[in-house]
Amino acid sequence: MPPAAAVLIEDRNAELFQPDTALPTQFDDLWARSPRLSPGPRLALAVLQLAVVDFFKYRGARREPEQRMYRKARCWLTSKDQSWPLSFLNVCETLQIAPDQLRTRVLAASPFEREAAIREVGKLLDAGRR
What we know:
Elements: H1 3-16, H2 24-32, H3 39-57, H4 64-78, H5 88-95, H6 99-107, H7 111-127
Helix pairs in contact: 3-4, 3-5, 3-7
């Protein structure tokens, strides 16, 4: 290979492996269109998911620690208190969910619905670990 061709190939390879440059402002549009929740609503969703899972999973538990988890979840779900930022009513407001409808649906869920909800919440939690 002639030396000029080798230099040309090296220059071309160097161009291929140069990082692309992007301005921070170019990412603003991407982040604005992102379907991800901002940290506040994401935390609210995680609290709601955990309460629903605990309520369903430990319903009818025989051991005291599991019974305590069920009671705490039930107390949180049925509370009308809004003084705590992550109370059930405030979480629902943050997530734009009708609290009375959600509460009624969770409290009246059949065993099949409870099992399905536990599986679905698990999928949501796994999807959130990116």
